[in-house]
Design a protein that fits this description.
About 30% of the residues lie in helices and about 35% in strands. It is globular and about 65 Å long. By secondary structure, the chain is α+β, with helices and mostly antiparallel strands. The chain contains 6 helices and 15 strands. It has one domain: Aminohydrolase, N-terminal nucleophile (Ntn) domain (Glutamine Phosphoribosylpyrophosphate, subunit 1, domain 1, 4-Layer Sandwich), CATH 3.60.20. The strands form 4 sheets. Strands 5, 6, 9, 10, 11 and 12 form a 6-stranded antiparallel β-sheet that branches. Strands 13-1-2-14-15 form a 5-stranded antiparallel β-sheet, covered by helices on one side. The two termini are about 20 Å apart.
């Protein structure tokens, strides 16, 4: 399942994602009917967070799409879009970038007749300079994207976000809402994004839940006027840590 978060603050957007891929096995019960579904870690070296043009993109769900890595699909699309922008002298908006990525993944899944279930978050600054996140859901050959992206100070999550939602539903946090993020400098927003991933990972571990979030944490920021920058890349040769 995995987890990715985008935390939008005044001076920038902090992005974080884990590095775990999980396999699911469903087996029929030997007696009494029904079935049992078991999830188990397959790898802690996957990449869910990417730079695409000047945007930050998180892709959670199928790590391989029609026999291709998400990274290779984004690389090809980026080259295609750069050529288009040079010809048209026009930049993509956050929503347009998310939609282009979703269409590529939807096309590949449909061509391979794979079911697929992919959640995409594309973050950056909109034309008015507001921090923005566009969310896209691709399931098989169908794509869903809200009419308007989420703009302004706030938090978005994709994947197994139950722990993140529980934290934000706490009365002390809920009463503060976006005010908390308004008060934090960007370095603390980065730490908070990492905290959300690591807390989910550790909560699942200590409470004996299916460990769908794990490995290391990739972290990046998009600063106002500075663009995308990597803060931390997990060590793929050391179990993702």
């Amino acid at each position: 399942m995995s987890l990715a978060v985008a935390v939008r603050a005044i001076d920038g957007i902090a992005l974080a994602a884990d590095t775990r891929t999980t396999l699911t096995s469903t087996q029929k019960k030997s007696s009494g009917g029904g079935s049992v579904t078991t999830s188990y870690p397959a790898s802690d070296g996957a990449t869910k967070l990417f730079q695409f043009l000047g945007f930050g993109v998180s892709v959670v769900g199928n790590p391989i799409v029609a026999g291709r890595s998400v990274a290779s699909l984004l690389h090809e699309l980026e080259a295609e879009v750069i050529k288009e922008m040079a010809d048209a002298e026009q930049m993509l908006t956050v929503k347009e970038a998310g939609e282009r990525i979703g269409n590529v993944i939807r096309r590949e899944l449909a061509a391979a007749s794979e079911p697929g279930d992919v959640n995409i978050m594309c973050s950056g600054f909109d034309e008015a300079g507001a921090p923005t996140t566009a969310k896209v859901h691709v399931q098989g050959d169908k794509m869903t994207i809200p009419a308007d992206p989420n703009t302004g100070i706030g938090l978005e999550a994709a994947g197994d976000s139950s722990v993140v939602q529980a934290l934000w539903a706490m009365p002390s946090v809920k009463s503060m809402g976006g005010t908390m993020l308004q008060l934090l400098p960007l370095c603390d927003v980065v730490d908070y994004a990492r905290f959300l991933i690591e807390t989910t990972r550790d909560y699942q571990r200590y409470h004996l839940l299916p460990q769908t979030v794990g490995g290391g944490v990739d972290i990046a920021v998009i600063e106002r006027g500075q663009g995308f920058k990597w803060i931390r890349r997990a060590d793929r040769l050391n179990g993702g840590r």
